[in-house]
Every structure is written in structure tokens, then in C-alpha cells.
């Protein structure tokens, strides 16, 4: 099973004005909504039927939900970003394919249990959250407003802060709706990379000290996502396994392509699959802002990546078919429109499942 599952393939929101998306042929333009109640797009029988064909232990979703350009795909009507940020989650969770979402704002400032509870109250019982750990403990550097590292972060990988400012509030607020709690480690400076055994030791100490998820969130998993390929070693794998954590498959140009990351998943097998598809490789390691400028308002696919879809679908089919949970969230910067990428990935998963029957 292990080899077949991971066979390598060859080959704070401020209101912003949304650009008007191009309406689909059968859709009419809608007047901007003037209420704080966000209405979901009308049910799509095609998406509902597709959702019923997907594995029950797969939860697909997007990175956040506050995008005005998703009108007619996720929202009925047009809303300002600030309205969607505060009131859009309940409507988002009614999309047939969305059984998860990544809360990314927690990276910039820790969220309280009360804030998490507000999110949990807006989604169905079967919904699960992926949540990013705060930079307070996940970023090796204290950064200025321009994003440049100014000095070493003394709280980096601090076990007490990681538990108190992240894991425990998430458990208290989200309860059984915790899916994946992700420590996305920002790029390490060169001097730290030269001390990788020390960094791995600190990471292992932190992970082993975290509160257990299972008593509150039986489906929950701790995952570590990295931005330095130097992490992708057997020693890193040992740290994760010893702490009962897993690797978050990070689809980002700072890392090797998905195929090159699969050996790490093989080494950790069996276990849940966590993946965050962050940025199309076309834009390079520092192309986040370029992708954002090119893809806004995120209402259509621009740079389609069928190879990544096919490989990711293959891993999902293998993991879920073996009874493992899978949490996969996708950014608008992956192909241009996260809802459309989720749909395309779901269709590829369905195709591969049908081919196995």
C-alpha cells in the first residue's frame, strides 16, 4: 500500500472595492448586497452530486473565505471584503465541496478561544478547520512592516507559548471541529540553517509538549509546514514521528515539487494527509504579490496546473482509500481562483476513483 500510495509521477480586514467578475453565461449580474447577512450561491446540483462521490474522510476547502470575486460561485450577490470576513463563513460552509477552511489570520496575531468559538458556531458539525500557528512561535525572526527580519525571535518554537497562545485556545474554541493545526515555519536565515540539528531538537521539544488533541478533537492532527528544503530529511521525519505529528505537504515554489516531497510522506506512513496548496510555481519563491496582482479578483482560473492536481489527487485517493483523514486547503494563488481549483481537484479525484473501480 505504501508504495502504491506515494508512487512518484514521471513526467483585521479593511473594506476593499472588488472588481466586477465576469458573469458565467447562464448567470446575470447582481446588484451589490447592502446587508451584513451573506447569502450562499444557489445550490448547484452538479457540485452536490460530485460531493456525494468524494471520500467521506476527505475535507477540501480554501485558504480563508473573504473574497468578493467569488460572487456567483460561493456568494449570491456581491459583498465587500469586510462583510465577507465577518459574516461570510456560514455561507461558505454551505458550498457542497467545502468541508474545511484554513484560518490564516491566526498567523499574524493569536486568536482567542472566544474568536475560535464564533467560527465554530457558523459551520456544520462535520466541518473541520485547518489553522495556522501564530508567527509569535512559528517565525524564527522578528520582522518589520516590510517583512524583513530584524532580529532573532526569542519565542521561536517556545513550547509554553505554542500551547497557551495556539493549541489550547483552538481546542477550547473549535472543540471537535479542529482538523489540522499547522506550524508553518517561515524561512530560516542562513546561520540557523547551519544549526539544523539544534533547530530540530527545539522543534521536537515543542511538539512533544503540546496538549493532546484526541480527547477533545478526535480528528485533529498537529502538522509542520516548512519553507526551507533543508528540512526534508530523515532527521526531520524522525522528529515528527516521535512527537506524533505529521508533515504538511506545502505546495510552494520555495520547496521542491510535490513529487519530490512524497518520500517524506512515505516515511511517515500510515497517517493523516495535510496539504496546503499555496502558490503556483510559475511565480517563483517570492512571487506571492505578483500572483495576487495577476489573479485578483480571483474569479477565474489563470495558470492551470493539471500535473499538480493529478499528483495531489492520486495521494488523496490513496490516503483516504486506506482509511486515513485528509485535509487539503487551496489558495487563490494556486491557479487563480480557489473555488474553481477545488472543483477541478474534486473532479480529478472522482475520475481516479472511477478508474480504480
TrEMBL record:
Disordered as annotated region, ranges: 1-42
Coiled-coil segments: none
UniProt superkingdom: Bacteria
InterPro entries assigned to the protein according to its UniProt record, in alphabetical order: DUF72, UPF0759_sf
Signal sequence residues: none
Protein name: DUF72 domain-containing protein
Record Pfam families: DUF72
Taxonomic path: Bacteria, Pseudomonadati, Pseudomonadota, Betaproteobacteria, Burkholderiales
